[in-house]
Amino acid sequence: MSCRSALLGFALTAVAILPASAGDTGFPRSVEHALGTTTIADEPQRIIALIDRDADTLLALGEQPVAIRSNYNFEAGVGVWAEHLLEDEPIVWGGRELNYEAIAAADPDLIVFATSGGDADEYNLLSRIAPTISLPKDALPWQATTAQTTRLIAEALGRKADGEKLLADLDAYMAAQKRAHPEFFGKTANYLDVHSSGIYQYADDHIVNGALYALGFEPIQGALDVADDAASIVVSPELLPDYDADIVLAYPFERSLDELITEVPTLATLPSIAENRFFLLDNLAFSNASVLSIPYALEGLIPQFSAALAE
Predict the structure, then answer these.
(1) Across the chain, what does the average pLDDT equal?
(2) Which pLDDT score, from 0 to 100, does residue 4 have?
(3) Global pTM?
(4) Helix crossing, 207-214 with 160-180: angle to 10°?
(5) Which pLDDT value is given to residue 175?
(6) Are residues 97 and 238 in the same domain?
(7) Are residues 160 and 193 in the same domain?
(8) Domain residue limits at 144
(9) Concatenated DSSP letters for 144-198?
């Protein structure tokens, strides 16, 4: 069995996929989000997801989107952790821009864009095509949590209880991993983006940091120092040692560790790199941050964390 197949097999057991159902409440129904209230007259039959994570959530709820805009340009519209749930081939668009003509041509009766920047102009244009749900209330643009988007999408479908079941399964998976790995307790962990435009330290409530803490790791002070109204801060290279941890995860933007060190020589001074406790994320599972992709991401990383801390 390939490593990818093994990861996928375990991820399937972490969160139970739910069958499509009539839901716990009927239609018409109204759903509140950051940009207002959307009324959905009838149970949706032709749903479009305008970002990858929302497509994952629909699939986990047993719904089949007729079209997906993949922000990450996944050929199937979703990552490998969700491909097996696609019963038919949806229309797939890539890229960062919305193609309103193509969206309208897909003839949706519900547009899902919960993982979004909450742009009012986009929302107004989309709402002319079909009922649209946007950024959850109280969420920062592009910073909505997995729980917030899962609950909003489930509510729009009249599936509140099913949404809570997905989140409970994810919480149970995280708790089981924490119990199984006491070696993580008392150790620090941190996530960095090493981008060509700079090095970014994320707040303690960022999805990757949050997942690490749920496993039993502790935050570094640098994560706690990010302001509540900011998603991240730029770290100057000379200050990188202040953002090191017992375990460091970094997204390399398609570069190797050697290439990163060439661009940012200070990286070579970090104990986490010298002691093989610095890990590059090699897929987009964490970035996608859905109830399906988080277990897939962690299942490949947890054994590596344990091995690194045992050295």
Answers:
(1) 91
(2) 47
(3) 0.89
(4) 60
(5) 97
(6) no
(7) no
(8) 14-169
(9) --HHHHHHHHHHHTT-HHHHHHHHHHHHHHHHHHHHH-GGGTT-BEEEEEEETTE
- In this prediction, residues 132-158 reach a mean pLDDT of 95
Is residue 162 assigned to a domain? yes
Can you tell me which residue has the tokens 């499509």? 20
Residue 153 and residue 27 share a domain? yes
Lowest mean pLDDT among 45-59, 84-98, 208-222, 223-237: 223-237
pLDDT tens-digit map of 119-140: 999 999 999 999 999 999 999 8
DSSP state letters, 245-274: -SEEEEE-SS--HHHHHHH-GGGGG-HHHH
Q: List, as own/partner pairs, every contact residues 282-288 make where C-beta atoms lie below 8 angstroms and the sequence separation is at least 24, other chains included.
A: 283/79, 283/80, 284/52, 284/72, 284/79, 285/79, 285/81, 286/207, 286/208, 286/211, 286/249, 286/251, 287/72, 287/251, 288/52, 288/53, 288/56, 288/72, 288/79
Q: Are residues 133 and 185 in the same domain?
A: no
Q: Final residue of a domain: which of 122, 141, 169?
A: 169
Q: Do 164 and 186 sit in the same domain of this protein? A: no
CATH number of the structural domain spanning residue 253: 3.40.50.1980
31 shares a domain with 146 = yes
